[in-house]
């Protein structure tokens, strides 16, 4: 699962017994060599879909980590891209990885997704693999924050994989991981919130609608379909309603 440049089992154990923020500070130098980074094939599929919907002007990568999603934004946004994360270590790695003179220029901001330090200035917000760090009860506040930093007509987009079938090894691996995390958090402080099975498609759609978004979803064709015909991976596209008389999200 890990390349020779990734963390050791001992390092992972130390990180897992830390807070989420400190754990990612420790993991940052080797994060891009772990399976926790969003695979390039998903990033490319999202980029292609957003490119067909754009272009956009100002983009935000929510919980950006080392900036894999920032690369997507730089290809679909014309004017600026911003990454926000509460791990200073992850931001430092991302800042060092991305060339400062590449266009559009990137800004890296330390902040909490539950209290975003921005006004309504973005046309596009993306997020990759971060929602497992939020408990279901936090979703209304999180989506309200994203709604508040989008311009009228702006878009929130993120990929969601189909849940694995109960007969598949992946189903039991994710169930085992989530169970281990619940036991860890019951016995150890500070908690480390990371669950794979709490971010459910139907519930997410309902909470986005309650936050004031118009919600669509689009199959990402590169990943095919399950035997029942449903997509293996979808892109959720949630749009903040445009105000009467306002321009489009990319008119910036």
TrEMBL record:
Q: Which Pfam families match?
A: Methyltransf_25
Transmembrane stretches, start-end:
none
Which lineage ranks, top first, belong to the organism behind this chain? Bacteria, Bacillati, Actinomycetota, Actinomycetes, Kitasatosporales
**What GO biological process terms are annotated to this protein in UniProt?**
methylation
Q: Which residues form the Methyltransferase domain?
A: 60-154
Q: Name one GO molecular function term.
A: methyltransferase activity
Q: Which UniProt keywords apply?
A: Methyltransferase, Transferase
- Keyword Transferase in record: yes
**Protein name per its UniProtKB record:** SAM-dependent methyltransferase
Please name the SUPFAM superfamilies in this protein's record: S-adenosyl-L-methionine-dependent methyltransferases
The record's annotation in CDD domains points to:
AdoMet_MTases
* Species whose genome carries this gene: Streptomyces colonosanans
Q: Which domain of life is it from?
A: Bacteria
> Does the record carry Transferase as a key word?
yes
